[in-house]
From TrEMBL:
<keyword id="KW-0963">Cytoplasm</keyword>
<comment type="function">
    <text>Hydrolyzes UDP-glucose to glucose 1-phosphate and UMP and ADP-ribose to ribose 5-phosphate and AMP. The physiological substrate is probably UDP-glucose. Poor activity on other substrates such as ADP-glucose, CDP-glucose, GDP-glucose and GDP-mannose.</text>
</comment>
<protein>
    <recommendedName>
        <fullName>Uridine diphosphate glucose pyrophosphatase NUDT14</fullName>
        <ecNumber>3.6.1.45</ecNumber>
    </recommendedName>
</protein>
<dbReference type="InterPro" id="IPR000086">
    <property type="entry name" value="NUDIX_hydrolase_dom"/>
</dbReference>
<dbReference type="InterPro" id="IPR004385">
    <property type="entry name" value="NDP_pyrophosphatase"/>
</dbReference>
<dbReference type="InterPro" id="IPR015797">
    <property type="entry name" value="NUDIX_hydrolase-like_dom_sf"/>
</dbReference>
<comment type="subunit">
    <text>Homodimer.</text>
</comment>
<dbReference type="GO" id="GO:0008768">
    <property type="term" value="F:UDP-sugar diphosphatase activity"/>
</dbReference>
<dbReference type="GO" id="GO:0005737">
    <property type="term" value="C:cytoplasm"/>
</dbReference>
<dbReference type="GO" id="GO:0046872">
    <property type="term" value="F:metal ion binding"/>
</dbReference>
<keyword id="KW-0378">Hydrolase</keyword>
<dbReference type="GO" id="GO:0019693">
    <property type="term" value="P:ribose phosphate metabolic process"/>
</dbReference>
<feature type="domain" description="Nudix hydrolase">
    <location>
        <begin position="62"/>
        <end position="229"/>
    </location>
</feature>
<keyword id="KW-0460">Magnesium</keyword>
<dbReference type="GO" id="GO:0006753">
    <property type="term" value="P:nucleoside phosphate metabolic process"/>
</dbReference>
Amino acid sequence: MFKSILAQALRCSSNAQLPHGQQVTNVTKVWVAPLPEVSKWIVPIQMHYIENGKLKIQDIVKVKDSVSVVLYNISRQKLIFVRQFRPAVYHGLIMGNTRNLHKEDIDLIRFPYELGITLESCAGVVDKDKSLAEIAKDEVFEECGYNVPVDKLEHVFEYRPSVGASSSAHNLYYCEVCDEEKVSDGGGIDNEVIQVVELSIDEARNFVKEGSSINSGPTTIAGTLWFLANKI
Ligand SMILES: Nc1ncnc2c1ncn2[C@@H]1O[C@H](COP(=O)(O)OP(=O)(O)O[C@H]2O[C@H](CO)[C@@H](O)[C@H](O)[C@H]2O)[C@@H](O)[C@H]1O
């Protein structure tokens, strides 16, 4: 069973899919633990309601809202993405649908950490007292190194990426940048370890083609499809 999970994970891995083999980071030890009662990031709650006279209960995970930016470099006609190790993706790939807590350290030889490296649009959590567009502008600078005025960010749409268990809202923006606006390497702030990746339009089209299997969330897929449908 593990062999088939690993084979599937390797197919999904952004490393296996894209011509950007450089090492993004180096993860040397992984283990899991139960969530503490109070988490800064996630609040599990239960909603009770009566629908058509019948009591119903729904378990909900409260997650912070987020923004993302489809970033297009017009100087070189490249879409800008980021790669990073995502613990949740890694866990999902190696544990599948099982809910057991793994007692020992994860075997990194059997399950290389690279499986958890995603390819995503530049994105960030809404955790500052700023407008959504300003938060998106900050992420473009911090993660990708482009300094753009906030009015260059075009609001595309708002949606809810995980309606079954989470109510969080996601706001997707589009921004065209040029080489002159690139002022740093990006790579994230604080503890973030992020690699900036540029894809040609054909590479991006390949990324969302029929039958593909990718290590990305709905935001990256929706943003890429929106770009291909509206800007090309
Ligand atoms: N659950 C968690 N546990 C511990 N630390 C956490 C955490 N979530 C965020 N952090 C910390 O906050 C930092 C900054 O996060 P960002 O604002 O860059 O959002 P991120 O890109 O991770 O996810 C954004 O982009 C992805 C992809 O679109 C969305 O799924 C997501 O909701 C959105 O916030 C992270 O580096 C991490 O240190």
